[in-house]
């Protein structure tokens, strides 16, 4: 599970911002909202980010996704740039390095992985683990301008032979993370494999509003020969008051690589089949989210969703969150952005899962946590937000325009 993620100088983020999943002292629905990663330490399963358009909500999710991809993907070309933009709305940030760091738990042990980089190369990278109260170095890497490459120092408890250490160092080109090089190196197993597997298997791709969810659904159905995914989806759809009684993948005649999802609806006089093209955007979006729900409940993963309310009714959005919290007894985490403020008026939402992104006059994003806002527990979060007491709301100006 992720405990904290920090990022600076990445797109609209200039100064370091941090989002963490440590719960407050509030004991409200604690067993539903948290998971004990080690004795005495619980982490939140849910995070919800609000903010005005272009305030940086999506950027938080994109930063986590970028960090995940950077830790598992080794570039083929050592001269290829690292594809991102630093903060571009001043004259200095574009010349500075960017930074990301994540602290997370695997099998009850805390790891901290961080790196400093620019558009051409990695400046530094470090991985430490807490097997006790004291940190243990796994590796550190530092770039030298004099030699033009990075020197990697492995900790004494890394569990790798010198030959394997040299192999990893040889695969660590300047625009590549050490962790990605580990994934490409034929070396004996060590703690590094656990970290690589966590990033590659447990941190999942962000669901964006424009994502082709039907392709995602069909792929998950194909990878579930025991039909457990399909059974789960039908159960959720029926509970959500859809009149879909079945669905199946159908290959298009004469097009070997083309497949459609066919939905069977109960109607007046019997059951009727509809091609996916005839289904509403809301039905397809909720079906995709239901696949995510299955993975969150059964596979212990981290899933970011951007604009979770896209194309679906608020009650379905709320139901999705409730089902996740009520049925996930593992270490899965869900981080999402939304514009739907109705959720702020719900009694079942803890205040420490709500975050607000704010953009200052210079165009830089910062992030604030609702539970740290000082809002009295008897005050309505919804009303406080509408009144601009939590964050400054967008000023739209006059509705009358000059010709």
What topology emerges from the helices and strands here?
Blueprint: E1 2-8, E2 17-20, H1 30-33, E3 34-38, E4 41-44, E5 46-51, H2 57-72, E6 98-106, E7 109-117, E8 122-130, E9 136-144, E10 149-154, H3 162-171, H4 178-184, H5 191-202, H6 213-222, H7 228-239, E11 244-251, E12 259-267, E13 270-275, H8 281-298, E14 302-305, H9 314-327, E15 333-337, E16 354-359, E17 365-369, H10 381-386
Parallel strand pairs: 5-15, 5-16, 14-15
Antiparallel strand pairs: 1-2, 1-6, 3-4, 6-7, 7-8, 8-9, 9-10, 11-12, 12-13, 16-17
Helix pairs in contact: 3-4, 4-5, 6-8, 7-8, 8-9
What attributes characterize this protein structure?
403 residues; alpha+beta; 7-stranded antiparallel β-sheet; 5-stranded mixed β-sheet; globular
What is the strand arrangement across the widest sheet?
Answer: 2-1-6-7-8-9-10
- pLDDT < 50 stretches: none
Total helices: the number is 10
Distance between the termini: 55 Å
Q: Look at the structure and give the mean pLDDT.
A: 93
* Overall number of strands: 17
Q: Which structural class do the helices and strands define?
A: alpha+beta
What share of residues is helical?
25-40%
Radius of gyration: 23 Å
What string, H for helix and E for strand, traces the elements in order? EEHEEEHEEEEEHHHHHEEEHEHEEEH
Shape: globular
Oligomer state equals single chain
Beta percentage is 25-35%
The main pleated sheet reads as: 7 strands, antiparallel
């Amino acid at each position: 599970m992720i405990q904290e993620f920090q990022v600076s100088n990445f797109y609209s983020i200039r100064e370091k911002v941090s989002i963490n999943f440590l719960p407050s002292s509030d004991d409200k629905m604690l067993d539903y909202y948290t998971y004990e990663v080690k004795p005495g330490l619980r982490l939140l399963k849910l995070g919800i980010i609000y903010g005005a358009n272009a305030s940086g909500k999506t950027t938080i999710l994109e930063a986590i996704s970028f960090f995940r991809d950077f830790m598992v993907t080794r570039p083929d070309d050592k001269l290829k740039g690292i594809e991102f933009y630093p903060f571009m709305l001043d004259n200095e940030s574009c010349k500075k390095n960017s930074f990301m760091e994540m602290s997370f738990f695997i099998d009850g042990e805390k790891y901290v992985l961080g790196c400093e980089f620019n558009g051409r190369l990695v400046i530094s990278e470090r991985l430490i683990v807490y097997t006790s109260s004291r940190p243990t170095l796994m590796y550190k890497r530092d770039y030298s301008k004099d030699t033009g490459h990075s020197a990697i120092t492995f900790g004494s408890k890394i569990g790798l032979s010198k030959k394997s250490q040299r192999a990893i160092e040889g695969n660590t080109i300047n625009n590549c993370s050490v962790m990605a090089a580990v994934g490409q190196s034929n070396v004996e197993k060590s703690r590094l494999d656990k970290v690589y597997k966590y990033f590659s298997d447990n941190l999942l791709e962000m669901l964006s509003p424009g994502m082709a969810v039907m392709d995602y659904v069909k792929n998950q159905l194909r990878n579930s020969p025991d039909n457990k995914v399909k059974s789960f989806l039908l159960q959720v759809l029926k509970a959500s008051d859809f009149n879909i009684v079945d669905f199946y993948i159908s290959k298009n005649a004469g097009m070997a690589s083309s497949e459609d999802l066919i939905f069977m609806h109960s109607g007046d006089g019997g059951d009727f089949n509809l091609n996916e093209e005839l289904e509403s955007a809301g039905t397809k979006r909720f079906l995709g989210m239901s696949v995510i729900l299955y993975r969150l409940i059964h596979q212990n993963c981290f899933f970011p969703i951007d604009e979770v309310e896209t194309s679906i009714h608020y009650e379905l959005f709320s139901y999705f969150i409730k089902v996740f919290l009520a049925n996930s007894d593992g270490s899965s985490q869900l981080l999402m952005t939304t514009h739907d403020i109705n959720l702020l008026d719900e009694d079942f939402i803890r205040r420490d899962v709500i975050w607000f992104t704010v953009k200052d006059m210079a165009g830089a994003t910062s992030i604030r946590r609702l539970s740290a806002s000082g809002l009295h527990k008897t005050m309505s979060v919804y009303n406080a937000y509408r009144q601009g007491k939590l964050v400054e709301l967008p000023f739209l100006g006059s509705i009358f325009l000059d010709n």
